[in-house]
Specification:
By secondary structure, this protein is α/β, with parallel strands linked by helices. It has helices at residues 2-7, 36-45, 50-59, 66-72, 104-109, 111-135, 151-165, 173-179, 189-193, 217-232, 241-253, 267-284, 299-317, 335-341, 466-478, 482-485, 499-512, and strands spanning 14-21, 31-32, 81-84, 90-91, 98-103, 140-143, 169-170, 205-206, 215-216, 259-261, 291-294, 327-329, 350-353, 368-375, 378-379, 396-402, 408-415, 427-431, 438-441, 445-448, 451-455, 458-459, 494-497. The longest helix is centred in the first third of the chain and has 25 residues, at 111-135. It starts with a helix and ends with a helix.
Length: 513
Amino acid sequence: MAYGYWRAGRQGEAAEFELFFRRCPFQGGFAVAAGLAQVLAFLRAFRFAPTDIEYLESVLPITTEKAFFDYLRVVDASEVSVSSVPEGSVVFSRVPILQVKGPLLVVQLVETTLLCLVNYASLVATNAARFRLTAGPDKKLMEMGLRRAQGPDGGLSASKYSYMGGFDFTSNVLAGKLYGIPVRGTVAHSYVSSFTSLAEVNPRVLQPLCGGEPVDFPSRVEAWLSKVCQLLQAPLERVNRGERAAFVSYAITFPHNFQGLVDTYCVMRSGIPNFCAVALALNELGYRAIGVRLDSGDLARQSVEIRQVFRTCSAHFQVPWFERVPIAVSNDVSEWSLEELVQEGNEIDMIGVGTHLVTCPLQPSLGCVYKLVNVNGCPRLKVTEDEEKTTIPGSKVVYRLWDDAGFPCMDLMALEEESPPKAGKEVEFWLLGRTKETGKITPTAVEILHRLYLKDGQVCQALPSLEEIKKHAQASLSKLNPAHKRLQDPEAYQVTVTQKLHALFTDLQRDSQ
C-alpha cells in the first residue's frame, strides 16, 4: 500500500485519519481512553533502520523500484501532528480518540501500531474502571493477573493501565519499578505447603521492635496457639503444624509485613488459629500483622467469620488493633462476582483481581478503527451497507456539552471551520445514524474535547504522570451521569453532528451512490 502511494506520487499529500471505536466495550456505556503516551513515544522515534530496509527489499516483489527503498530510508514522523482527548478521559462510541494529520503515506503506515497501542490500553483501563465502579471508593483493589496475561508485554501494560483505571496496587514488581505503582503481594500456597514442622524454621529468634534480647519466636507462637485454641474452642491437634511453621518463618523474615494466606488447609480450623497465634506473638514483640488473604471458598461468608474471630481475640487479649486486621480475598474475581464481595455485611478490605481480560474473554479488543476523513482538504467518506461502519467525513472539532445538572450530556462533532457552540445559547444537532432526527439543546457549559499533543513530530505540551492520569480518569468518571455509567443496561450517551456536518455527510453519501 505504501509503495502504491509512492508510485502514484501521492506520498506527501496532506491527510487526516481518526481513531475511534464503534461500540462501547463490555456492553457498557463508556470507555476510558489510554495509550497516548506510548503513541507519542512511538511517533517521535518512528523511522526505518538499515536492517528494516534490507528485510523489506528481501520480501517485496523484485519489481519494486530501488528508489522506493531510498525514500523509506529518510521517512519519519517529523510532519505528523496528533490531537487527542487527554489520557484517562471518558470517551464514547464514534467520537475520535486520536486525530492524526500528516503526509498520506506516513499516517497510513502508522495505522496498525497506533491501533495496537490504543486498543489494549483503553480496554484494560476501561475494565479496571468498571471494577472500581463496582467496588466503590473504599475497597482496595490489587491487580494480580500477570500469570495469565497475554505475554510479558501484555502483562506489563495491563498492570500499568489497571492502575490508571482505578486499582490501588499491583503484584507485578517490574511494573512497580518502571511506573511507580504501589506493590503488594503475599506468599503462595506452595510456600505454606512446603513446610511440615517447626523444626524446619531457621532462624528461630526474633528481635523485639523496641530492643532487648532476641526471643525464641516459635516457642512464643506455640504458647499463644494454646490460648487462641482454648478461646475459640478449636482442637489444638487439628491445627496444621506445617502451616504454622510457614507462618512463623515468614513472620521472622518480614515481621513488619506479615500477612497470612489462610486457606491452604482448613481456614477456620487451622489457618485462622495459626495466623492469630503468630500475629499475637508478633504483637507481644511490638509488631503488627498487616492482614490475611483468602483464595478459595465462599469469600464473603468466610470474611464475616474471620472478622468475628478477630474481634473475639481483640477483646479477650486486650489488643485493640487486632479487630481491624485487613482481610484480602482473591480467586478468579470477575465483574459479576465482585458485586457480591462488596455488598454490605461482609468484612472484605482488599480484593485481588486479574484484570488482564481473563475475566472478560469475549472482549479481546476495544474494536478501535483508524479511518481516513480528509485528503488535501477534501472530505473522505467510507460508505457501506453496514451503517455502523460508515465514517464521519471532514476535519472536525468535537465539543462536549454539559447540562443543568452538571453532567456531560452530549458530544457534538462540527467541521473545523464552524463557529463553536456557546454556553447558554441554543444549539441544533442531528443524531448519528438518524438522517431525519434533529433536536436542540442549550448547554450550560461547552468543552473542546481534543488537545494538540504532537505538532510536526514534536511533543508540544507536557504529559501528565501516571498518578495524574489516574486522578483524571476518576474525576472524569465522577462527572458522568450515573445513567451513563451503569455497568448493566446503561443509558446511551448522545453523540451528534452539526447541521453543516450533517449536510456534508448526506451530500457525500448521495454522490457515492
